[in-house]
Amino acid sequence: MIEGHCDPAFEAVRTAFADGFARGEEFGAAVAVYVGDRCVVDLWGGVADRRSDRPWLRDTPCLAFSCTKAVTATAALLLAERGLYDLDAPVTSWWPEFGAAGKDGATAEHLLSHQVGLPALSRDVPVAEAHDPAAMAALLAAQEPEWKPGTSHGYHALTYGWLAGEIVRRCSGRTVGEFVRDEIAGPLGLDLHLGAPDDVIERAARLSAGRKTDKGGAARKGGPSATGEVPRPLSPEDPLAKMTAGFRDPNSLLNRTFGNPDINRLPGGNNNPEMLRAGWPALGMVTTARALAGFYRDLLAGRIVGRTTLRDAVVRRVAGPDRVMYIDSSFGLGFMRPSLVFLTPRAGWDSAFGHTGLGGSISLGDIEKGLALAYIPNRMGDEVSGGVRAYRLLEAAYACL
């Protein structure tokens, strides 16, 4: 079932990857690991489409959800490095309309680190309208923030792309997808798309929901875990309990952040070719694991932005309770840093950066160890962010170093 290449020194990664299929946790997936410029793991397996049993092949791309945000942020950082705007200057210096409703003190750093206070849209937005980055930017520019920019942080699940993307659009005259194609993915030969062409959509994996199964294939039905352990009740003040309550409340900031625009109103949801072509800059990237790991390989090597720019970008700007997700999160300039929403082994706590994606995908670079890893599944997990499947692969990769 598992195909591809794995250096013998990284056999633990192959084992962890295969175990996910054996547990019934995967339909199809791919994982890739670089150490420096050397590809030590490039594995794939399972089915790309459960309806037809189309197999996952070497060049099967898949929607990587919020792993997109790190690529969008990198495009913005590249333009700052070129001197086209100042990260510390007011956003109004290059986007005058953004100063409305008390946001005149916001900076690009606030935009890139989830501090600007615009995690949720103020009105229901149809999916078709969200395909227009200029319209979405204008809507957000006029909107009152949930908190004064720079005073707190909360995950901007969808709006991040239109906010950080406006840096790219105004400073380069191109959408994020066009800029990434012309300046990053194209020159580096990466099969990575924000706005996938039809030939990429045709070979892309189809996302599927699915319940976890035990080793014998029987679906778990709640209650005690497979180990017989009964989960302890959570206090109402526990951040995980607050997150659960937030998802149950249709008017919570959490639901308003994640649920508008409501992609589920579109036939097929994120599998709809309309969404894959749109390339929303917060969650619309279609890529292979090999290409996404290659993106971090090239970031670490200084081929996209300079090493000084990257080191500054991964400095923690915020850390602690997230205003949207309740549990602790931590961000640099566009990159997640290790926290409860970006779990890494202890060996990566000080030097890892990257981004997780809805349903279980993850992308990571380690600025000290030269490690680059990407994992993309098509079986949607229950995770808002990276989950246990991704963590097992990270744990194995770090152990192999």
From TrEMBL:
Residues 208-217 have a biased composition (Basic and acidic residues). Keywords: Hydrolase. The keyword Thylakoid does not apply. Residues 16-397 form the Beta-lactamase-related domain. InterPro entries: Beta-lactam-related, Beta-lactam/transpept-like, Beta-lactamase/esterase. Residues 208-236 are annotated as: Disordered. GO terms for molecular function: hydrolase activity. Coiled coil: none annotated. This is Serine hydrolase domain-containing protein. It comes from Actinoallomurus vinaceus. The lineage of its organism: Bacteria, Bacillati, Actinomycetota, Actinomycetes, Streptosporangiales.
